[in-house]
Amino acid sequence: MSNAFIDQALLERTVRHATAYLRSLPDRHVGARASRQDLLDALGGALPEDGHESAAVVDDLAAAADRGAIGSAGPRYFGFVIGGALPASVAADWLTSTWDQNAGIFVTSPLSSVIEEIARGWLLNLFSLPSDASLGFVTGCQMANFTCLAAARHAVLRTAGWDVEQDGLNGAPRISVVLGAEAHVTIFVALRMLGLGVRNVRLVATDEQGRIKADDLRRTLKGIEGPAIVCAQAGNVNSGAFDPLREIGEAVREQGAWLHVDAAFGLWAAVSDELRHLLDGVDLADSWATDAHKWLNVPYDCGVTIVRDLSAHRASMTSAAAYIQKTTGAERDPMDWVPEFSRRARGVTVYAALRALGRRGIVDLIERSCARARQFAELLSRDKRVKILNDVVLNQVLVRFGDSDEMTSQVIALVQQEGTCWLAGTTWHDMAAMRISVSNWATSESDVRRSAEAVLGCLSRASRD
Fold this sequence. Notes:
By secondary structure, the chain is α/β, with parallel strands linked by helices. The chain has 15 helices and eleven strands. The chain has helices at residues 8-24, 36-43, 54-68, 87-99, 110-127, 141-159, 164-167, 185-193, 214-222, 245-255, 292-295, 310-317, 347-381, 405-418, 445-464, and strands at 134-138, 176-180, 202-204, 228-233, 258-262, 287-291, 303-307, 386-388, 396-401, 424-428, 431-437. The strands form two sheets. A seven-stranded mixed sheet has the order 1-7-6-5-4-2-3, sandwiched between helices.
Protein backbone atom coordinates (compact mmCIF):
# COMPACT_ATOMS: atom_id res chain seq x y z
CA MET A 1 0.00 0.00 0.00
CA SER A 2 1.40 3.39 -0.98
CA ASN A 3 1.93 6.06 1.64
CA ALA A 4 1.50 9.65 0.47
CA PHE A 5 3.67 10.88 3.33
CA ILE A 6 6.75 8.97 2.21
CA ASP A 7 8.83 9.58 -0.89
CA GLN A 8 11.60 7.15 -0.09
CA ALA A 9 13.65 8.01 -3.16
CA LEU A 10 13.49 11.73 -2.38
CA LEU A 11 14.51 11.23 1.23
CA GLU A 12 17.44 9.03 0.21
CA ARG A 13 18.47 11.59 -2.41
CA THR A 14 18.38 14.33 0.21
CA VAL A 15 20.47 12.25 2.61
CA ARG A 16 23.09 11.81 -0.12
CA HIS A 17 23.23 15.57 -0.73
CA ALA A 18 23.43 16.34 2.98
CA THR A 19 26.10 13.69 3.52
CA ALA A 20 28.19 15.01 0.65
CA TYR A 21 28.01 18.52 2.06
CA LEU A 22 29.03 17.41 5.54
CA ARG A 23 31.90 15.36 4.12
CA SER A 24 33.16 18.43 2.28
CA LEU A 25 33.39 20.64 5.38
CA PRO A 26 36.89 19.68 6.59
CA ASP A 27 38.52 20.65 3.28
CA ARG A 28 36.14 22.94 1.41
CA HIS A 29 36.79 26.57 0.55
CA VAL A 30 35.25 28.17 3.64
CA GLY A 31 33.86 31.29 1.99
CA ALA A 32 31.17 31.43 -0.66
CA ARG A 33 32.34 31.23 -4.26
CA ALA A 34 29.09 32.21 -5.94
CA SER A 35 27.95 35.79 -6.41
CA ARG A 36 24.42 37.06 -5.85
CA GLN A 37 23.87 36.96 -9.61
CA ASP A 38 25.19 33.40 -9.85
CA LEU A 39 22.64 32.30 -7.24
CA LEU A 40 19.82 34.25 -8.86
CA ASP A 41 20.62 32.62 -12.20
CA ALA A 42 20.70 29.15 -10.65
CA LEU A 43 17.61 29.39 -8.46
CA GLY A 44 15.56 32.39 -9.58
CA GLY A 45 13.34 33.31 -12.47
CA ALA A 46 9.57 33.62 -12.58
CA LEU A 47 7.45 31.46 -10.31
CA PRO A 48 6.65 28.38 -12.45
CA GLU A 49 3.05 27.87 -13.51
CA ASP A 50 3.39 24.15 -12.94
CA GLY A 51 5.34 22.65 -10.09
CA HIS A 52 8.74 21.04 -10.65
CA GLU A 53 9.63 17.55 -9.54
CA SER A 54 10.69 17.52 -5.89
CA ALA A 55 13.92 15.74 -6.80
CA ALA A 56 14.87 18.53 -9.21
CA VAL A 57 14.16 21.17 -6.56
CA VAL A 58 16.38 19.38 -4.04
CA ASP A 59 19.14 18.83 -6.62
CA ASP A 60 19.16 22.53 -7.57
CA LEU A 61 19.31 23.62 -3.93
CA ALA A 62 22.20 21.27 -3.24
CA ALA A 63 24.09 22.45 -6.31
CA ALA A 64 23.64 26.08 -5.31
CA ALA A 65 24.84 25.34 -1.79
CA ASP A 66 28.06 23.84 -3.12
CA ARG A 67 29.25 27.31 -4.15
CA GLY A 68 26.84 29.66 -2.41
CA ALA A 69 26.87 28.40 1.18
CA ILE A 70 29.46 29.61 3.68
CA GLY A 71 31.26 26.71 5.35
CA SER A 72 30.28 28.03 8.78
CA ALA A 73 29.53 24.53 10.04
CA GLY A 74 33.13 23.52 9.38
CA PRO A 75 36.20 23.59 11.63
CA ARG A 76 37.92 26.68 10.15
CA TYR A 77 35.12 29.22 10.31
CA PHE A 78 36.03 31.89 12.85
CA GLY A 79 34.15 34.91 11.53
CA PHE A 80 31.50 35.24 14.20
CA VAL A 81 30.53 33.28 17.29
CA ILE A 82 28.94 30.54 15.21
CA GLY A 83 29.15 26.94 16.33
CA GLY A 84 29.01 24.12 13.81
CA ALA A 85 26.12 21.79 14.57
CA LEU A 86 26.97 18.56 16.37
CA PRO A 87 26.00 15.34 14.56
CA ALA A 88 23.41 14.49 17.21
CA SER A 89 21.86 17.96 16.97
CA VAL A 90 21.68 17.78 13.16
CA ALA A 91 19.95 14.41 13.36
CA ALA A 92 17.56 15.74 16.00
CA ASP A 93 16.84 18.76 13.80
CA TRP A 94 15.87 16.45 10.94
CA LEU A 95 13.51 14.63 13.28
CA THR A 96 12.08 17.95 14.46
CA SER A 97 11.20 18.85 10.87
CA THR A 98 9.76 15.40 10.26
CA TRP A 99 7.54 15.52 13.32
CA ASP A 100 6.39 19.05 12.33
CA GLN A 101 5.15 19.89 15.81
CA ASN A 102 3.76 23.21 16.96
CA ALA A 103 5.61 23.66 20.25
CA GLY A 104 3.37 26.44 21.52
CA ILE A 105 1.25 24.56 24.04
CA PHE A 106 1.34 21.15 25.67
CA VAL A 107 -1.79 19.92 23.93
CA THR A 108 -0.37 20.56 20.44
CA SER A 109 2.82 18.65 21.26
CA PRO A 110 3.26 16.83 24.58
CA LEU A 111 6.57 15.50 23.22
CA SER A 112 8.03 18.95 22.57
CA SER A 113 6.83 20.31 25.89
CA VAL A 114 8.35 17.52 27.94
CA ILE A 115 11.64 17.57 26.02
CA GLU A 116 11.95 21.30 26.65
CA GLU A 117 11.09 20.77 30.31
CA ILE A 118 13.92 18.27 30.64
CA ALA A 119 16.38 20.49 28.73
CA ARG A 120 15.41 23.41 30.98
CA GLY A 121 16.43 21.47 34.08
CA TRP A 122 19.70 20.33 32.56
CA LEU A 123 20.66 23.85 31.44
CA LEU A 124 19.91 25.45 34.80
CA ASN A 125 22.02 22.79 36.46
CA LEU A 126 24.91 23.31 34.04
CA PHE A 127 24.84 27.07 34.55
CA SER A 128 24.49 26.77 38.34
CA LEU A 129 21.44 29.02 38.20
CA PRO A 130 18.36 28.70 40.44
CA SER A 131 16.60 25.40 39.78
CA ASP A 132 13.20 27.10 39.97
CA ALA A 133 14.02 29.79 37.41
CA SER A 134 11.86 29.96 34.30
CA LEU A 135 13.36 29.26 30.89
CA GLY A 136 12.20 29.61 27.30
CA PHE A 137 13.62 28.73 23.89
CA VAL A 138 13.64 31.61 21.40
CA THR A 139 15.25 32.36 18.04
CA GLY A 140 18.53 33.68 19.38
CA CYS A 141 20.07 36.07 21.87
CA GLN A 142 18.25 39.02 20.30
CA MET A 143 14.90 37.60 21.37
CA ALA A 144 16.38 36.20 24.58
CA ASN A 145 17.43 39.71 25.58
CA PHE A 146 14.04 41.05 24.49
CA THR A 147 12.18 38.48 26.59
CA CYS A 148 14.31 39.04 29.68
CA LEU A 149 13.95 42.80 29.40
CA ALA A 150 10.17 42.43 28.94
CA ALA A 151 10.11 40.55 32.25
CA ALA A 152 12.31 43.26 33.77
CA ARG A 153 9.97 45.99 32.50
CA HIS A 154 7.00 44.18 34.05
CA ALA A 155 8.73 43.66 37.40
CA VAL A 156 10.11 47.16 37.97
CA LEU A 157 6.83 48.80 36.95
CA ARG A 158 4.83 46.35 39.08
CA THR A 159 6.93 47.46 42.05
CA ALA A 160 6.07 51.05 41.15
CA GLY A 161 2.36 50.17 41.11
CA TRP A 162 1.92 50.06 37.30
CA ASP A 163 0.58 47.20 35.14
CA VAL A 164 2.39 47.66 31.85
CA GLU A 165 0.67 44.74 30.10
CA GLN A 166 -2.77 46.27 30.76
CA ASP A 167 -2.02 49.98 30.75
CA GLY A 168 0.94 50.27 28.40
CA LEU A 169 3.71 52.83 28.81
CA ASN A 170 1.68 56.03 28.36
CA GLY A 171 1.72 57.66 31.76
CA ALA A 172 3.90 54.96 33.32
CA PRO A 173 6.75 55.80 35.70
CA ARG A 174 9.88 56.36 33.68
CA ILE A 175 12.32 53.43 33.65
CA SER A 176 16.02 54.28 33.81
CA VAL A 177 18.17 51.87 31.77
CA VAL A 178 21.89 51.63 32.49
CA LEU A 179 24.30 49.92 30.09
CA GLY A 180 28.01 49.57 29.65
CA ALA A 181 29.45 51.67 26.82
CA GLU A 182 30.17 48.44 24.90
CA ALA A 183 26.79 46.77 25.35
CA HIS A 184 25.80 44.56 22.42
CA VAL A 185 23.55 46.04 19.75
CA THR A 186 20.80 43.50 20.53
CA ILE A 187 20.20 45.22 23.87
CA PHE A 188 19.50 48.49 22.09
CA VAL A 189 17.20 46.77 19.59
CA ALA A 190 15.30 45.11 22.44
CA LEU A 191 14.87 48.47 24.18
CA ARG A 192 13.43 49.94 20.98
CA MET A 193 10.99 47.06 20.57
CA LEU A 194 9.89 47.35 24.21
CA GLY A 195 9.09 51.04 23.89
CA LEU A 196 11.86 52.04 26.30
CA GLY A 197 13.92 53.70 23.59
CA VAL A 198 17.65 54.32 23.47
CA ARG A 199 18.02 58.11 23.54
CA ASN A 200 17.91 58.32 27.31
CA VAL A 201 19.95 55.20 28.11
CA ARG A 202 22.68 55.94 30.65
CA LEU A 203 26.02 54.61 29.44
CA VAL A 204 28.69 53.63 31.94
CA ALA A 205 32.38 53.82 31.05
CA THR A 206 34.27 50.63 30.21
CA ASP A 207 37.94 49.73 30.58
CA GLU A 208 40.51 48.73 27.96
CA GLN A 209 39.00 45.24 27.65
CA GLY A 210 35.41 46.45 27.37
CA ARG A 211 34.37 45.75 30.97
CA ILE A 212 32.00 48.02 32.89
CA LYS A 213 33.80 50.16 35.48
CA ALA A 214 31.96 49.26 38.68
CA ASP A 215 32.76 52.56 40.40
CA ASP A 216 31.22 54.49 37.52
CA LEU A 217 28.17 52.26 37.70
CA ARG A 218 27.73 52.95 41.42
CA ARG A 219 27.95 56.69 40.82
CA THR A 220 25.39 56.45 38.03
CA LEU A 221 22.98 54.42 40.16
CA LYS A 222 23.16 56.93 43.01
CA GLY A 223 21.71 59.54 40.67
CA ILE A 224 18.67 57.43 39.76
CA GLU A 225 15.29 57.50 41.41
CA GLY A 226 12.44 55.16 40.51
CA PRO A 227 12.38 51.98 38.37
CA ALA A 228 15.73 50.96 36.92
CA ILE A 229 17.18 48.16 34.79
CA VAL A 230 20.91 47.48 34.51
CA CYS A 231 22.40 45.32 31.75
CA ALA A 232 25.78 43.66 32.23
CA GLN A 233 27.76 41.51 29.83
CA ALA A 234 29.34 38.08 30.19
CA GLY A 235 31.56 37.79 27.15
CA ASN A 236 32.24 40.99 25.22
CA VAL A 237 31.47 40.32 21.56
CA ASN A 238 34.94 41.55 20.56
CA SER A 239 37.30 40.78 23.42
CA GLY A 240 35.41 38.05 25.27
CA ALA A 241 35.88 40.00 28.52
CA PHE A 242 33.41 39.72 31.42
CA ASP A 243 32.00 42.62 33.38
CA PRO A 244 32.77 42.51 37.14
CA LEU A 245 29.48 40.78 37.85
CA ARG A 246 29.74 40.51 41.62
CA GLU A 247 30.44 44.22 42.11
CA ILE A 248 27.70 45.08 39.65
CA GLY A 249 25.23 42.68 41.25
CA GLU A 250 25.82 44.05 44.73
CA ALA A 251 25.44 47.65 43.52
CA VAL A 252 22.22 46.86 41.66
CA ARG A 253 20.74 45.06 44.66
CA GLU A 254 21.48 48.03 46.88
CA GLN A 255 19.57 50.19 44.41
CA GLY A 256 16.63 47.77 44.21
CA ALA A 257 16.99 47.62 40.42
CA TRP A 258 16.79 44.68 38.02
CA LEU A 259 20.05 43.18 36.73
CA HIS A 260 20.05 41.45 33.35
CA VAL A 261 23.14 39.65 32.01
CA ASP A 262 23.65 39.37 28.27
CA ALA A 263 25.67 36.16 28.14
CA ALA A 264 25.21 35.11 24.52
CA PHE A 265 28.23 32.81 24.70
CA GLY A 266 29.92 33.65 28.00
CA LEU A 267 27.39 31.81 30.18
CA TRP A 268 28.87 28.52 28.96
CA ALA A 269 32.03 29.31 30.94
CA ALA A 270 30.02 28.20 33.98
CA VAL A 271 30.58 24.54 33.07
CA SER A 272 34.38 24.76 33.37
CA ASP A 273 36.45 24.77 36.55
CA GLU A 274 39.09 26.71 34.60
CA LEU A 275 36.71 29.44 33.47
CA ARG A 276 33.96 29.65 36.09
CA HIS A 277 35.73 32.45 37.98
CA LEU A 278 34.94 34.77 35.06
CA LEU A 279 31.26 34.51 36.02
CA ASP A 280 31.73 35.24 39.71
CA GLY A 281 28.56 36.99 40.87
CA VAL A 282 26.41 36.01 37.88
CA ASP A 283 23.97 34.37 40.30
CA LEU A 284 23.11 37.84 41.64
CA ALA A 285 21.31 38.71 38.40
CA ASP A 286 17.57 38.58 37.82
CA SER A 287 17.71 37.36 34.22
CA TRP A 288 20.16 35.83 31.77
CA ALA A 289 20.23 35.44 27.99
CA THR A 290 22.36 33.02 26.00
CA ASP A 291 22.51 31.08 22.74
CA ALA A 292 22.56 27.35 22.12
CA HIS A 293 23.45 27.81 18.45
CA LYS A 294 26.68 29.44 19.50
CA TRP A 295 28.68 27.31 21.93
CA LEU A 296 26.41 24.31 22.39
CA ASN A 297 26.67 23.79 18.63
CA VAL A 298 23.04 23.14 17.73
CA PRO A 299 21.55 24.25 14.38
CA TYR A 300 20.08 27.71 13.96
CA ASP A 301 17.90 29.11 15.44
CA CYS A 302 18.01 28.55 19.21
CA GLY A 303 18.40 31.12 21.97
CA VAL A 304 17.69 30.67 25.67
CA THR A 305 16.01 33.15 28.01
CA ILE A 306 16.19 32.58 31.79
CA VAL A 307 14.38 34.62 34.47
CA ARG A 308 14.53 34.28 38.25
CA ASP A 309 11.05 35.74 38.81
CA LEU A 310 8.63 33.27 37.23
CA SER A 311 5.62 35.52 37.73
CA ALA A 312 7.25 38.46 35.95
CA HIS A 313 8.42 36.27 33.09
CA ARG A 314 5.05 34.61 32.58
CA ALA A 315 3.05 37.82 32.95
CA SER A 316 5.14 39.54 30.29
CA MET A 317 4.82 36.72 27.74
CA THR A 318 1.69 34.60 28.27
CA SER A 319 -1.49 35.00 26.26
CA ALA A 320 -4.89 33.37 26.22
CA ALA A 321 -7.85 32.97 23.88
CA ALA A 322 -11.06 30.96 23.89
CA TYR A 323 -9.70 28.47 21.36
CA ILE A 324 -6.33 27.91 23.10
CA GLN A 325 -6.39 24.88 25.35
CA LYS A 326 -3.96 25.75 28.13
CA THR A 327 -2.83 23.32 30.81
CA THR A 328 -4.07 23.45 34.38
CA GLY A 329 -1.77 20.84 35.91
CA ALA A 330 1.95 20.14 35.97
CA GLU A 331 2.23 20.18 32.17
CA ARG A 332 4.22 23.04 30.64
CA ASP A 333 2.92 25.38 27.93
CA PRO A 334 6.09 26.72 26.25
CA MET A 335 4.25 29.80 24.93
CA ASP A 336 4.06 31.15 28.48
CA TRP A 337 7.79 31.92 28.38
CA VAL A 338 8.46 33.19 24.85
CA PRO A 339 7.03 35.81 22.47
CA GLU A 340 5.72 33.22 19.98
CA PHE A 341 2.80 30.82 19.97
CA SER A 342 3.35 28.85 16.77
CA ARG A 343 6.99 27.87 16.66
CA ARG A 344 9.47 25.12 16.00
CA ALA A 345 10.32 22.69 18.80
CA ARG A 346 13.75 24.24 19.39
CA GLY A 347 14.41 22.38 22.60
CA VAL A 348 14.75 19.05 20.77
CA THR A 349 18.20 19.88 19.39
CA VAL A 350 19.32 21.22 22.77
CA TYR A 351 18.19 18.02 24.46
CA ALA A 352 20.02 15.93 21.86
CA ALA A 353 23.26 17.92 22.16
CA LEU A 354 23.25 17.86 25.97
CA ARG A 355 22.51 14.15 26.13
CA ALA A 356 25.02 13.22 23.42
CA LEU A 357 27.83 15.25 25.00
CA GLY A 358 27.10 14.76 28.67
CA ARG A 359 28.62 17.08 31.23
CA ARG A 360 32.21 16.02 30.49
CA GLY A 361 31.72 16.48 26.76
CA ILE A 362 30.33 19.98 27.23
CA VAL A 363 33.26 20.94 29.45
CA ASP A 364 35.67 19.56 26.86
CA LEU A 365 33.97 21.49 24.05
CA ILE A 366 34.22 24.80 25.91
CA GLU A 367 37.77 24.33 27.17
CA ARG A 368 39.08 23.10 23.80
CA SER A 369 37.66 26.15 22.06
CA CYS A 370 39.42 28.44 24.52
CA ALA A 371 42.67 26.51 24.11
CA ARG A 372 42.43 26.89 20.33
CA ALA A 373 41.89 30.64 20.73
CA ARG A 374 45.04 30.89 22.85
CA GLN A 375 46.87 28.82 20.23
CA PHE A 376 45.77 31.25 17.52
CA ALA A 377 47.04 34.21 19.52
CA GLU A 378 50.35 32.52 20.25
CA LEU A 379 51.00 31.50 16.64
CA LEU A 380 50.08 34.87 15.15
CA SER A 381 51.95 36.92 17.76
CA ARG A 382 55.24 35.25 16.78
CA ASP A 383 55.24 37.57 13.77
CA LYS A 384 56.40 41.08 14.71
CA ARG A 385 53.92 42.59 12.25
CA VAL A 386 51.02 41.22 14.33
CA LYS A 387 49.56 42.68 17.49
CA ILE A 388 47.04 40.90 19.74
CA LEU A 389 44.77 43.61 21.12
CA ASN A 390 42.89 41.77 23.87
CA ASP A 391 43.55 39.53 26.82
CA VAL A 392 42.52 36.12 25.47
CA VAL A 393 40.38 35.03 28.42
CA LEU A 394 37.82 33.04 26.46
CA ASN A 395 37.36 32.15 22.79
CA GLN A 396 37.85 35.58 21.21
CA VAL A 397 41.06 36.97 19.70
CA LEU A 398 41.46 40.51 18.32
CA VAL A 399 44.29 40.93 15.83
CA ARG A 400 45.83 43.97 14.16
CA PHE A 401 48.35 43.93 11.33
CA GLY A 402 51.12 46.44 10.79
CA ASP A 403 49.43 48.82 13.26
CA SER A 404 47.39 50.06 10.33
CA ASP A 405 43.66 50.10 9.58
CA GLU A 406 44.38 49.78 5.88
CA MET A 407 46.73 46.82 6.29
CA THR A 408 44.36 45.06 8.71
CA SER A 409 41.39 45.46 6.37
CA GLN A 410 43.43 44.26 3.43
CA VAL A 411 44.55 41.12 5.27
CA ILE A 412 40.98 40.31 6.26
CA ALA A 413 39.81 40.65 2.65
CA LEU A 414 42.66 38.45 1.37
CA VAL A 415 41.96 35.75 3.97
CA GLN A 416 38.30 35.65 3.00
CA GLN A 417 39.24 35.32 -0.66
CA GLU A 418 41.94 32.69 -0.07
CA GLY A 419 39.46 30.30 1.53
CA THR A 420 41.49 28.25 4.00
CA CYS A 421 39.51 29.87 6.79
CA TRP A 422 37.01 32.68 7.15
CA LEU A 423 37.55 35.59 9.53
CA ALA A 424 35.68 38.85 9.92
CA GLY A 425 36.66 42.36 10.80
CA THR A 426 35.50 44.68 13.54
CA THR A 427 36.28 48.09 15.00
CA TRP A 428 37.84 47.95 18.45
CA HIS A 429 38.46 51.21 20.31
CA ASP A 430 38.52 53.13 17.02
CA MET A 431 40.93 50.68 15.39
CA ALA A 432 40.30 48.15 12.63
CA ALA A 433 40.86 44.61 13.86
CA MET A 434 40.44 41.02 12.77
CA ARG A 435 38.12 39.16 15.12
CA ILE A 436 38.72 35.44 15.63
CA SER A 437 35.93 33.47 17.32
CA VAL A 438 36.56 29.79 18.08
CA SER A 439 33.34 27.96 18.91
CA ASN A 440 33.13 24.88 16.66
CA TRP A 441 33.27 21.42 18.23
CA ALA A 442 35.41 20.12 15.34
CA THR A 443 38.19 22.74 15.34
CA SER A 444 41.51 20.99 15.95
CA GLU A 445 45.05 22.13 16.63
CA SER A 446 45.92 21.39 13.01
CA ASP A 447 42.97 23.51 11.82
CA VAL A 448 44.33 26.45 13.82
CA ARG A 449 47.90 25.92 12.57
CA ARG A 450 46.68 25.73 8.98
CA SER A 451 44.55 28.83 9.43
CA ALA A 452 47.30 30.85 11.15
CA GLU A 453 49.69 29.99 8.32
CA ALA A 454 47.12 31.18 5.79
CA VAL A 455 46.59 34.44 7.69
CA LEU A 456 50.32 35.14 7.85
CA GLY A 457 50.64 34.26 4.19
CA CYS A 458 47.99 36.83 3.35
CA LEU A 459 49.80 39.35 5.56
CA SER A 460 53.00 38.80 3.57
CA ARG A 461 51.08 39.21 0.35
CA ALA A 462 49.50 42.44 1.56
CA SER A 463 52.90 43.74 2.68
CA ARG A 464 54.30 43.20 -0.84
CA ASP A 465 51.40 44.91 -2.61
